[in-house]
Design brief:
It is built from 21 helices and no strands. The chain is mainly alpha-helical. It starts with a helix and ends in a 23-residue tail after the last helix.
């Protein structure tokens, strides 16, 4: 006999321990009502059905959101390049626009997308595509250069310089990249850095005229004429009739206290180009050293008229006016100098702000307004163009550009800079 049945018999024999009538031996004394059993069963069935529905919905969601199979984006890039060659950047962009980073050849496809966007004038989106290209293909020199030049065109010179120097490290033998680095550093006011970049150009291409002139222009006006002496000799040997070379050589001669030679070189330069500022400064300093106040004043005034926002020229004008006894003019020039210095300070602050907010069209527009107010029409035009490149519907920049071109018709015929906006030359993507 089992332990359970024995226990049951004992309880049945005890007084008051008689089981309920109709209840079989070995069962509970309390039965679950039939209505409760039906309710519990219904709830169980409902829960099971709900679980089936939830699982079905999860399955449908996963199916609709499942990752698409990986494609070979290199084939898409090849099709996109074919469309670019046939002059259809719109079709080229459509072919590659949905390429994912993990797909083989994604970097090449995104580079094609960037080139298509550049050709369609979508510069802000093109910059994002180029940033993505450089991330996917960190050794892609052409994309890096194009992105650097595009940033410079859109006003972000600091980011542009960072990218251009990265490209130069990737391909140090390419003198064209070093030349662009030199120009950007010069524009940012880093004359020493610009000089080093130009020297690297000349190491790779000794006959590069623009790099030679750029090097002289960074050394001589900044008190390094002695360092520039061998380069001056080379420039005079290669380009003896070039007015730019003659003017720079004249300034170097003044710094070396060779006043007769400086005047001779300056006269030769001005005979070929009356607007040669370096020659005017050299001759003015030579005449100033000989206490020829009036003649020196005439040369400085002509130079200031050509470059009214040059701080160095205004300081030279102050010196000549003071030695000429023109006290009233000294006060006016000093006030003008402070105004120019203030403008330059604000423009420098805006330039740094553009680095922090590169997609804000208002910043290059404000920079352009300051340039226009200070008489720098070409710089103002470039700034307004940069604002419109960032946001074509930015009406303040459009109105400012129209007004500037109306007062300076020559700007409408100014050739575009060779930069990333058009992706020519070294920055051209394949």
């Amino acid at each position: 006999m089992s332990l359970a049945s024995a226990t049951h018999e004992q309880s049945a024999a005890e007084p008051g321990g008689r089981p309920c009538e109709g209840a079989p031996l070995g069962t509970s004394h309390r039965r679950v009502p039939s209505r409760a059993r039906i309710l519990l069963g219904t709830v169980g069935i409902a829960l099971a059905a709900a679980m089936v529905v939830v699982c079905a919905l999860i399955g449908l969601w996963w199916w609709s959101h499942r990752p698409a199979p990986l494609r070979d984006a290199r084939a898409l890039a090849a099709r996109g390049r074919a469309y670019l060659r046939s002059g259809r950047p719109d079709l080229a962009f459509q072919v590659v626009q949905d390429v994912r980073d993990e797909e083989p050849g994604a970097g090449e496809a995104v580079a094609v997308a960037a080139q298509a966007l550049l050709r369609m004038g979508q510069y802000r989106i093109a910059r994002l595509a180029l940033e993505r290209t450089v991330k996917l293909l960190p050794n892609h020199v052409e994309a890096t250069v194009t992105l650097g030049e595009l940033n410079c065109d859109l006003g972000n010179g600091e980011r542009g310089l960072e990218l251009l120097e990265a490209a130069a490290r990737l391909r140090p033998s390419d003198y064209r990249i070093w030349f662009t680095v030199g120009k950007v550093r010069h524009d940012l006011g880093d004359h020493a850095g610009a000089g080093r970049a130009y020297e690297r150009v000349l190491e790779r291409n000794p006959s590069h005229r623009e790099a030679l002139l750029g090097l002289l222009d960074t050394l001589i006006p900044n008190g390094q004429s002695q360092v520039a002496e061998p380069w001056v000799a080379k420039a005079l040997q290669m380009y003896p009739q070039d007015p730019v070379v003659l003017g720079l050589a004249a300034r170097a001669a003044v710094d070396a206290h060779h006043l007769d030679q400086a005047i001779t070189l300056a006269d030769a330069a001005l005979a070929r180009d009356q607007r040669n500022i370096h020659a005017l400064v050299a001759r003015a300093k030579s005449r100033l050293a000989r206490e020829q106040w009036q003649a020196a004043l005439a040369d400085v005034e002509r130079a200031v008229a050509l470059a009214p926002n040059d701080v160095g020229l205004l300081q030279l004008l102050l010196i000549v006016e003071a030695r000429s006894g023109l006290s009233q003019r000294v006060a006016a020039t000093r006030s003008r100098l402070r105004q120019v210095q203030h403008h330059l300070q604000v423009m420098d602050e805006l330039t740094h702000e553009i680095t922090r907010r590169p997609d804000d069209p208002e910043l290059p527009w404000k920079l352009g307004k300051l340039a226009a107010e200070s008489g720098q029409a070409l710089l103002a035009s470039r700034c307004f163009e940069a604002a419109l490149a960032l946001e074509p519907a930015f009406e303040p920049a459009r109105q400012s550009l129209r007004g500037l071109q109306a007062s300076h018709p020559e700007l409408t015929s100014t050739p575009p800079r060779s930069t990333g906006l058009r992706a020519p030359g070294v920055g051209a993507l394949p």
